[in-house]
Structures
1.
Amino acid sequence: MTEVRVPTLGESVTEATVATWFKQPGDAVAQDEMLCELETDKVTVEVASPVAGTLAEIVAPDGTTVGVDALLAQITEGASAAPAAPAPAAEAAPAPAAAPAEPVKNAPAAEKLMADNNVSNVAGTGRDGRVMKGDVLAAMAAPAPAAPSAPRADDPREERVTMTRLRQTIARRLKESQNTAAMLTTYNEVDMTEVMALRNQYKDLFLKKHGVKLGFMSFFTKACCHALKEIPEVNSEIDGKDVVYKNYVNMGIAAGTPTGLVVPVINDADQMSFADIEKAIAEKGARARDGKLSMAEMQGGTFTISNGGVYGSLMSSPILNPPQSGILGMHSIQKRAMVINDEIVIRPMMYLALSYDHRVVDGKGAVTFLVRVKEALEDPRRLLMDL
């Protein structure tokens, strides 16, 4: 008998919830076939069968909260079931009818996601038309068809759905952030003329040489890293009675996904080039949308950037990602009339918002940080000369 146990879930993650069993006792299982899916407060983990055989017992059914290395199930190794006894030789068995083709099995994670979100008729891109998790995420992100003018009589007017562990954790951590930190937000605006001109001038050469598009996020990441060196308290955290100052920048880039907000972390972003930052953002963003981020990729951040502008936000107050002491909110670029050298000109402007923990960051430091970010973006040459 082979035991199936909860795998290591990652640093600081000690428990998970059994979301879905894809097999039932008595079912045949192949080695490395997915048995069940565990849902943690950060990612979803699929548990595969360590051996081929028959699923003998499920110890932790759906909905059970389990710790690391807890027993999930037991598998009997070897042949899954004895074949049916053949008909006696004396009896001529009729020719069997052609068996219908076995339906294509979708990826277990895709089935779970479709069930949780009431999604159907998803076109699969996997082998033989198999629906993969990415197919479901893409279908969920597509615009919904227009609703009928009047609801059907049998449609429920309310729906009660249990929050996923990810959503529960987002809710808990954000409320803890409000209750714990003395959170305050300061605002400024930045003229994006120079950044946009520099990007337009070099975007084709950049793509040709580095194989990745030159976006705005690398400029903001560089500008924040530059400002964090001058205002280190924004790159710190409170630990009991101590303030821990970080002499490095692990930049969190908030990303919205169909299942909730996640913050993949780019380690040592202050040591990276524009191209390295753009490659890391593109790779981690794609993994986030496909639900393939690992625990390690979302831990250890020291500062966060959240871009609400991609959704059309003109101004907002981002909430801290504890235990970090600062988060920068980006917003939509909007052409506005500005007075420059006593003349009214049209400039592409963006509002910036810095939310910070007032327990460790004073108002002067927060305002100075935002001014340094503004200065670096309005004159990107300052980043090259470390000014």
2.
Amino acid sequence: MSRQVLVNAAAAARMAPSSHNTQPWRFRIVGDTLELHADPRRHLSVIDGERRQLVESGGCALFNARAAVRAMGFADEVEVFPDAEDRDHLATLRVGAPIITDELDRELLRAIPLRRTNRRPFLNRPVSLADSTALIALASRPGVWFGRLDPDQKRRLGRVIDDADRTHHANPVYRAELMHWLVEPGKRRKDGIPLEERAYRLPLPLEKELVRAAPLVMVIGTAGDSPHDWLAAGESLQALLLHATLRHLAAAFLNQALEIPPLRREVMSIIGRGEHPQMVLRLGYPEQPIEHPAPRRSLEDVLLVVD
């Protein structure tokens, strides 16, 4: 029974979001445990030199796996970074004792395949304070904080994002890395960003305007800035995204604001706290829902079962 639970958990984990849809993870079932490993071959070395986004993506996958285990009626027991000699071994998940699954656990599992990154404009419809407060409460984890930006902060953030986009696109090495992960229509790749979706971030000034017009812009941050903090931020991010999905909200990532160290410091100044921002995203009700999910590698591509 526990073996099938772990297989199902890995299947849910592989549906997590990741930068450029690189899906930078590998899973191993060893006995009664599911190991989550980062895949360094899928590391975006240009925009993520510190591996922060790589580990955050792993945190998103870990949250999915844990949600799946709970929805199947078992406690989720997790040890993070269990091997001090292997920085790619992010976590080990063990199936715990049977529990009574509540409706929220089942709803989160249902939301996993429904979640979409939506880079398109959002409706001019506000996200209520009650909804955003509920999302923060449901996504909170020890050591992780959330900030909601007011209109002036969104305007200032828009400038930072515009600076980041222009700096990135002037760098031929960045452009080469991006082009590697763009998927043209008709290609049978199981990873990367569909070209028609990436087009919603071009031309460059568009992103700045999308930020200013977004009903809700949030920053997720942590008190520290270690891999443990990045993993926790990823778990909180995925919790936020799944609960937002259940409220028919969509989200788009604004990672570029944090990918250049001087601009990351500007974001810290904008939000008015000296702690470490780990993710910036805009949320709202989509004008155009994304009907088809981004391509995904098969479970066989990412899961190894060790007998």
